[in-house]
Specification:
Number of strands: 0
Low-confidence stretches: 8-21
Shape: globular
Number of domains: 1
Order of helices and strands: HHHHHH
Strand content: under 5%
Radius of gyration: 17 Å
CATH architecture: Orthogonal Bundle
CATH superfamily: Cytochrome c-like domain
Largest sheet: none
CATH topology: Cytochrome Bc1 Complex, Chain D, domain 2
Distance between the termini: 55 Å
Structural class: mainly alpha
Helix content: 40-55%
Mean pLDDT: 86
Length: 124
């Protein structure tokens, strides 16, 4: 194989191996996991401690009307993709320094299930 092609292929393979793939989650299990989140986050009506998570996948961070977000969240420019939600739920303060969210979901399977559930929720 041409030496000029080998190096880029090796770099691409290394990057792909270093990037964790999101596992397909189970929305039914995610709904059960969400019960732990529902003390702060609502799906209908107004949430008290956290914003509504209805329609969160694909929504711009800090954009749920009627909720007072941290300055960091409002300024982040983040759009909640599955990958960004996964990183945020794993370690909120690391993923978005200055966030008010302090609860994490350390288990990757539970995060995948929770995100699968959140994907089923239409915007209010």
């Amino acid at each position: 194989m041409n030496q000029r092609l080998i190096r880029p292929l090796l770099i691409a393979a290394a990057l792909a191996a270093a990037t964790p793939a999101l596992a397909a989650g189970d929305a039914a299990k995610g709904k059960a996991i969400f019960s732990r989140c529902s003390g702060c986050h609502a799906l209908t009506g107004k949430s008290v401690a956290g914003p509504s998570l209805a329609g969160v996948v694909g929504r711009k961070a800090g954009a749920d009307a009627g909720f007072h977000y941290s300055k960091a969240m409002k300024a982040s420019g983040t759009v909640w993709t599955e990958a960004k939600l996964d990183a945020f739920l794993a370690a909120p303060a690391k993923a978005l320094p200055g966030t008010s969210m302090f609860v994490s979901v350390p288990n990757p399977t539970e995060r995948a299930d929770l995100i699968a559930y959140l994907k089923t929720l239409p915007a209010r």
